[in-house]
């Protein structure tokens, strides 16, 4: 008769072989620890229970890659940490999306977007916009904040649509480049 109690190493070996009972035992052993980690790390809009589910789904999908000789808890928390980072990067990317073509529409249709990133990000983006050369900034604001078409901007400022297009492209390139620096700094400070 197979013994009912297994060491963690034995459970991990069985999990690696696809044993669903071993997976279930490990799930109940670690789910609260992973949930506690998630509660401290993920933004409040993300349900920590959802993160727990994602961690264990990923664990099951990558079970063949587990090394039973290494510390299982560390492996599990590295999965959790990577998922949390993915959530944070996703939140940052949603905020960066504001410099894309649909900024006004997205903000109007998705009010929760405003709460996914700390206000420092928004303040930083507004500060970066102020660093754009005056004429380019005016064109950018007319497009992104007032929702004017390239044609409308060209007529209003007595310039060509190609000039509008190139000025907006230059503004977006500057914002993406500078904002990424801020995001990297945020992650370095956050993960310290």
Describe this structure in words.
The protein is 72% helix and 0% strand. Helix 2 packs across helix 3 and helix 2 (20-41) crosses helix 4. The chain is built from nine helices and no strands. It folds into two domains: 8-92, Rna Polymerase Sigma Factor, Chain: A (Orthogonal Bundle), CATH 1.10.1740; 118-190, Winged helix-like DNA-binding domain superfamily/Winged helix DNA-binding domain (Arc Repressor Mutant, subunit A), CATH 1.10.10.10. With 192 residues, the chain is an all-alpha fold.
Instruction: Give the amount of beta strand, in percent.
Output: under 5%
Low-confidence runs of at least 5 consecutive residues: 98-119
- Total count of domains: 2
**Rg over CA atoms:** 24 Å
By helix and strand content, what is the structural category?
mainly alpha
Q: Report the sheet with the most strands, covering strand number, pairing sense and barrel closure.
A: none
Please tally the β strands and state the result. 0
Helix content range: over 70%
């Amino acid at each position: 008769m197979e013994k009912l109690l297994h060491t963690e190493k034995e459970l991990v070996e069985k999990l690696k072989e696809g044993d669903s009972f071993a997976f279930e035992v490990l799930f109940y052993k670690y789910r609260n620890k992973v949930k506690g980690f998630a509660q401290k790390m993920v933004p409040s809009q993300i349900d920590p229970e959802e993160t727990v589910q994602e961690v264990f789904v990923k664990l099951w999908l990558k079970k063949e890659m587990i090394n039973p000789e290494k510390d299982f808890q560390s492996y599990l928390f590295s999965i959790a940490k990577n998922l949390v980072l993915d959530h944070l990067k996703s939140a940052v990317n949603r905020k960066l999306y504001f410099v894309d073509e649909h900024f006004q529409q997205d903000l109007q249709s998705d009010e929760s977007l405003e709460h996914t990133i700390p206000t420092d990000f928004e303040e930083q983006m507004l500060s970066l916009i102020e660093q754009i050369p005056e004429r380019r900034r005016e064109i950018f604001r007319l497009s992104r904040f007032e929702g004017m078409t390239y044609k409308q901007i060209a007529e209003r400022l007595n310039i060509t649509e190609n000039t509008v297009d190139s000025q907006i492209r230059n503004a977006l390139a500057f914002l993406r480049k500078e904002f990424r620096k801020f995001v990297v700094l945020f992650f370095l400070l956050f993960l310290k």
